[in-house]
Write a structure and sequence with these properties.
The complex is a heterodimer of chains A (246) and B (389).
Chain A lengths: L4 E10 L2 E11 L4 E5 L6 H8 L7 E6 L4 E2 L5 H6 L2 E4 L11 H8 L6 H6 L4 H13 L15 H15 L3 E5 L7 H14 L4 E5 L3 H7 L3 E5 L2 E6 L1 H6 L1 H8 L2
Parallel strand pairs in A: 3-8, 3-9, 6-7, 7-8
Antiparallel strand pairs in A: 1-2, 1-4, 4-5, 9-10
Helix pairs in contact in A: 3-6, 5-6
Chain B lengths: L4 H4 L2 H18 L11 H26 L7 H29 L8 H13 L17 H25 L4 H20 L11 E2 L12 H28 L1 H11 L1 H6 L4 H27 L1 E2 L6 H14 L4 H19 L6 E2 L4 E2 L1 H19 L3 H14 L1
Antiparallel strand pairs in B: 1-2, 3-4
Helix pairs in contact in B: 2-8, 3-8, 3-11, 3-12, 3-13, 4-5, 4-6, 4-11, 6-11, 8-9, 8-11, 12-13, 12-15, 13-14, 13-15
The chains are: A alpha/beta (246), B mainly alpha (389).
Chain lengths: 246, 389
């Protein structure tokens, strides 16, 4: 079984600082993976590279079968071929309704002309309602997303990811600022999503990672320090030294 | 689910009604069709103001909705004026030349007519040949098409270069200023083929309609302006209320985020930049026959800045805000600078509004920015909401 995303020997330097150092990583089509690591380990830069925001100095990034070279694509094209990203800070379009946010994310033709002629058909509305139910916002479709609570915004953003119908989801700190109940719901949502697609979760919170019960990749100084189950990596002396033992 | 465009843009119906009432009232009181209470001059001011409202809508689309602070849209407005002005001037001069030559013993050859037209139009800049860019000036349909094509193409090329290189924010504003300045400086040159600083004049005289008095023509143009404004408003309301409008607003609010949703921000920006340039050009093409003259000073960078000030004062991101701002500020501006405003004697100093109007305008701009960032329309909204609550 070939990997969905394959990152090979990638390095990137910002003003002399090596943010990513010969990093290799891969994930299968329906897999949940957590990435942990201390601040400055390169987690966000890794996501930037995969989504096309940052160009690496060397290395290869391939996606899908047959493999597509992501380094040659623009951000919007990478999003179109099936990589969705949720940012650390919830970034939804606050001046617009929950419905409109989801409708923009929905997998449809993206050109200006298509958008001008677009009219939400029954199928699209059904899909939006389905996603809204999934993320617990079914009763809030008509509200401005700026009025939502922090946790609801996080869910809306996850909902927007789902609406894009990507093969790979990159989720940056989904549980930040959530209450315990909200966290449980988020965990369920991610685990369920990972049954049909690949999900990479970047998280600081070990408790949350434990609840995801999935393989973990530990990043340190821009490369992979350890990989395996959470209990396996937390037993690794290197990991304890750089991350957990502080 | 009520998701139709009128439900999302309730201001459209009100706006069309108000526009129709104003235009009808002006007609009823006009010299040509009514009681004569409203001098022709005022009808022209009204007509011109409606055109300025139309370009303000274009500015609101590109800035208020898409977040691109273009300080160059008056260049497109002026170009539209030039394109229609070429036909107006050429065709009218042709009529005059043919009329004066018809008294000669031999009928003039087409070459002679063309030479005479060239001398008539370009004598003022020391030329007698009709430049190549005037090749189609005899044809109204072609020049009308050029009103859309020339500014549209300029916007398309400029926008493509700028947006592709991801020039945003204040850098883009500076670039658009540079564009309008360059165009204006080019047109100032006598050998630009558009009569240098003289510009194109006598545009109020419509070829073939010279027997009809200006009082009548001004009413027609006012109706034309009102029609264009009405269509422009409906069109703008339509494009901002659908999914296209949502994406455009999303670009304004968070460009990077909408890019990660798979939208090509550049394509949308280019689309809205070009379409608003075309709207501006159409507004200019209706404006300048009422103004009578278009010259390079109209395209000066300051004109485009004023446009931004109108929209800011009126309230950006609201179509009626742009219209209110443009109408109010441009009318006040011509009142203050036209010498009609009474001077304000302070005893030790007399405030002459011709000089002080700019200070007043600048001050109100600062006040609006500080205390009413959503402009006049924003205060409007607040009042309406209070009533509803």
């Amino acid at each position: 079984m070939s990997a969905l995303l394959e990152v090979l020997g990638v390095s990137v330097t910002f003003d002399g600082f090596r943010a990513i150092n010969d990093l290799s990583f891969s994930i299968q089509p329906a897999e949940l993976r957590a990435i942990i690591g201390p601040n400055g380990a390169g987690k966000t830069t890794f996501m930037d590279i995969v989504t096309g925001k940052t160009r690496p100095d060397s290395g290869r990034v391939q996606f899908g079968t047959p493999p597509v070279d992501l380094l040659r694509l623009r951000e919007s094209d990478i999003a179109k071929i099936g990589i969705g990203r949720k940012f650390q800070r919830p970034t939804v379009f606050e001046a617009q309704t929950v419905f409109d946010n989801l409708s923009m994310a929905l997998k449809n033709e993206r050109s200006p002309f298509a958008a001008l002629g677009y009219k939400a058909d029954r199928r699209d509305i059904g899909r939006i309602e389905e996603i809204a139910a999934e993320i617990g916002l079914a009763d809030h479709l008509r509200r401005l997303s700026g009025e939502l609570s922090h946790g609801q915004k996080q869910w809306l953003e996850i909902g927007m990811l789902l609406a894009q119908d990507p093969q790979l989801l990159l989720v940056d700190e989904p549980a930040a600022g959530m209450t315990l109940g909200e966290r449980e719901h988020t965990t369920d949502l991610l685990v369920r999503t990972a049954k049909t697609r690949a999900v990479i979760v970047v998280e600081h919170d070990m408790e949350f990672v434990r609840r995801l019960a999935c393989p973990v990749t530990v990043l340190h100084e821009g490369s992979v320090l350890a990989e395996g189950s959470l209990s396996h990596v937390t037993a690794n002396p290197d990991v304890i030294e750089v991350y957990l033992g502080r | 689910m009520k998701n139709t465009f009128l439900a999302r843009q309730p201001s459209v119906i009100v706006f069309i009604l108000v526009l129709a009432v104003i235009t009808l009232l002006a007609t009823v009181f006009s010299e040509a069709y009514g009681s004569g209470l409203l001098p022709t001059n005022y009808v022209k001011i009204l007509g011109k103001t409606l055109c300025l409202c139309l370009i303000a809508i274009a500015m609101d689309l590109v800035w208020g909705y898409c977040g691109i602070l273009s300080l160059g849209h008056f260049a497109f407005f002026g170009l539209g004026g030039y394109m229609i002005g070429m036909w107006l001037m050429y065709a009218r001069t042709e009529d005059i030349v043919i009329a004066s030559m018809s008294k000669a013993a031999l009928p003039p050859t087409p070459g002679e007519v063309r030479d005479a037209i060239g001398t008539q139009i370009f004598g003022v800049v020391g030329g007698s040949d009709v430049p190549v860019i005037w090749s189609f000036a005899h044809s109204l349909p072609i020049q009308l098409a050029l009103v859309v094509i020339v500014p549209g193409l300029l916007a398309l090329v400029f926008g493509w270069l700028a947006f592709r290189s991801r020039v945003t924010g204040v850098y883009l504003s500076i670039l658009t200023q540079a564009m309008t300045l360059a165009l204006s400086l080019y047109l100032f040159q006598n050998d630009s083929g558009l009569r240098g600083n003289n510009g194109l004049s006598g545009l109020q005289n419509i070829p073939g309609l010279t027997d009809i008095p200006q009082s009548v023509i001004s009413i027609w143009f006012m109706w034309g302006s009102a029609l264009a404004l009405g269509i422009g408003y409906v069109f703008a309301g339509w494009i901002v209320s659908g999914k296209f409008g949502n994406v455009v607003k999303a670009i304004r609010d968070d460009e990077a985020r909408i890019r990660f949703l798979g939208y090509s921000v550049e394509a949308y920006k280019l689309f809205i930049f070009t379409i608003t340039a075309v709207i501006a050009a159409i507004a200019g093409a209706i404006y300048y026959p009422q103004a009578g003259i278009v010259n390079p000073a109209e395209i000066a960078p300051i004109a485009s800045i004023y446009l931004a000030v109108w929209v800011a004062i009126g309230g950006r991101g609201r179509l009626y805000g742009a219209v209110i701002g443009a109408a109010l500020v441009s009318l006040l501006s011509s009142w203050f600078t036209g010498g009609q405003a009474p001077d304000l004697p302070l005893g030790f100093y007399t405030i002459k509004w011709v000089d002080w109007w700019q200070v007043l305008l600048g001050l109100s701009f600062v006040l609006v920015t500080l205390f009413a960032p959503r402009g006049i329309a924003g205060m409007f909204d607040r009042l309406v909401r209070k009533d509803a609550a």
